[in-house]
Fold this protein.
Amino acid sequence: MRIAILGGGRMGGALIKGMLASGITEADQITLSASTPESAERSASTLGVVAAGSNDDALKDADVVFLCVKPAKVLDVVASVTTELAGKLVISIVAGIHSSDILQATGGKIRLIRSMPNTAVRLRKGVTAIAPDATSTPADLETASRIFASVGSVVEVKESDLDTVTAVSGSGPAFALLMLEALAQGGVEGGLDPELSKTLATGALASAAALVAETGETPLALRSEITSPGGTTAAGLGVLDESNFPRIVRGAIRAARNRSAELSARPGSCGTNAGA
């Protein structure tokens, strides 16, 4: 398939690398446009794909179009190329811009799927939530799923769930990194070398995630297995319970979700999903 990437950036680059590594398409079948022809040439040269001098040029022969444009500009961009977009599958990775906004800007002449990849797609270990619009077909959904599967796992959600998805999957890695930072600092305060403590803290969180992903057990069940009555883990968990740590984390998710909903209500006012 021939693919156009409008905007590129870190997330667009990650998708291109995943598609090429998985063999979904070839480098000469991917065309990238950016804010200037010079920027497109630099990015395309780095990624090994074709640079377009304009969005119009990028769209000429494309079967699938990825919107990776900044939220503040995306509606203006799609409105300027409505003729070129007509009849194509458009996959938006832009946070906070509803399908209805994009469809209105394009005159409803496209087939649309919204998506929410998270930052780990750059390592091909991301999680992408896709929300098909009624304008898309089962074949379109399969195409989107295959592409995003090249950079990690894929889940299908309703568009109404994307604010919560953004909070858990988009913002969640930052919350986990704060926990990692605190674990590592605790090790340093206990006398460990900073690099060693960071390695141990990274391994602790990676191990916890791997246990849940690979055993299929719940976090609660796995935590119970690790926690011996009167042991070191129980002592530490007691401190976390006293500080209402679970409630604090749930509050962080709620705040991020509410902020996503607020920004979604004002198209063009939010940040990209890569930095949700």
Q: What stands out?
A: Residues 268-275 have pLDDT under 50 and may be disordered. Strands lie at 3-6, 30-33, 50-51, 64-67, 89-92, 111-117, 126-132, 152-156. The chain is about 55% helix and 15% strand. Residues 180 and 202 are 6 Å apart (CA to CA).
